[in-house]
Write a structure and sequence with these properties.
This protein is an alpha+beta fold. It contains 7 helices and 15 strands. It has 2 domains: about 150 residues, Immunoglobulin-like (Sandwich); about 120 residues, Type 1 dockerin domain. Bound molecules: calcium ion (2 copies).
């Protein structure tokens, strides 16, 4: 994944009235400028089976000068805003017009929110990335700031495992959720899983079929299809990709690994991401 210029420094550049005459400005690339907008919910609505009351505020993160992505991870400083969650406390979040058809997942802990969108195709249009909801009815969007933004694109998928340290590729072990076997469960793994489902016309893939066609569905460093079956159901589905995003968001919003693990266990729906297993070749 690549680190992108922060929205803050870009906005500082934008307000400068001075003509650009210095050589140092030549290499400045203003891409992936994120902004936050807010709109009051006028009538009570139900989003993903959770009731959003009238008077709540829909907070949207938007992207301009989009460099192109398949998936994104956005870290937000939310201040004291109270994000509306489902019965498990997972933020209610929907995709935007640049992420239509993607999975979207978020986790909030101690004022820090991490939201991932996981798609199957690269998109470089500008518009909204995702929307979540807060209870306060007078949101000042300048209080919600983007602290980090990372993207996954095709190049990342192809190169993600090549240079990375691998925990698992000795002695046939694999980590559940670490599809590219680089030692980490993150948005790249969720993206590879979503793309595999896309290659199967959007339908679930049995682990047996996926192992028989491992490098068609996955990447050359994938140990076995079981690494993509996050909930050990015997099938690779959107739920598995979503669980990888959830695991990554939990790990990204907690300083303490044990707390992150507990957060994941409290909120996952049967997922086993992060567990080390032995692959017996079947
Ligand atoms: Ca990985
Ligand atoms: Ca599964």
């Amino acid at each position: 994944m690549k680190k992108i210029i922060s929205a803050l420094s870009a906005s500082v550049l934008a307000v400068s009235a001075l003509p650009v005459v210095t050589a140092s400005a030549v290499n400045v690339t203003e891409e992936n400028i994120l902004s936050v907008s807010a709109e009051t919910v006028s009538e009570t609505l139900t989003v993903n089976e959770t009731v959003i009351p009238a008077g709540a505020v829909a907070v949207t993160v938007n992207i301009a000068d989009n460099s192109g992505f398949i998936s994104t991870t956005t870290k937000l400083d939310l201040g004291a805003y109270d994000v509306i969650g489902n019965e498990k406390g997972i933020p209610v979040v929907i995709t935007g017009d640049t992420t239509e058809g993607s999975l979207v997942t978020g986790i909030v802990n101690e004022g820090v929110g991490v939201f991932t969108t996981v798609g199957t195709e690269e998109d470089d249009t500008d518009g909204s990335l995702f929307t979540f909801y807060v209870n306060d009815n007078s949101v000042d969007t300048s209080d919600i700031t983007v602290s980090d933004f990372e993207t996954v694109d095709y190049i990342d998928i192809l190169t993600s495992a090549i240079s990375a340290y691998s925990l698992n590729n000795t002695a046939g072990y694999y980590k559940i959720g670490d599809v590219n076997n680089d030692g980490y469960v993150d948005a790249v793994d969720a993206t590879i899983t979503q793309m595999a489902i896309g290659k199967n016309d959007g339908k679930k893939i049995s682990v047996t079929n996926a192992n028989a066609n491992l490098y068609y569905f996955f990447v050359e460093t994938t140990v076995c299809a079981q690494s993509a079956d996050a909930n050990i159901s015997g099938e690779i589905t959107v739920a598995d990709a979503n669980d990888m995003s959830l695991y990554y968001a939990c790990m990204s919003t907690h300083q303490d690994v044990d707390e992150a693990q507990q957060s994941y266990e409290n909120q996952t729906d049967g997922g086993h991401c992060g567990e080390i297993k032995y692959y017996n070749g079947k």
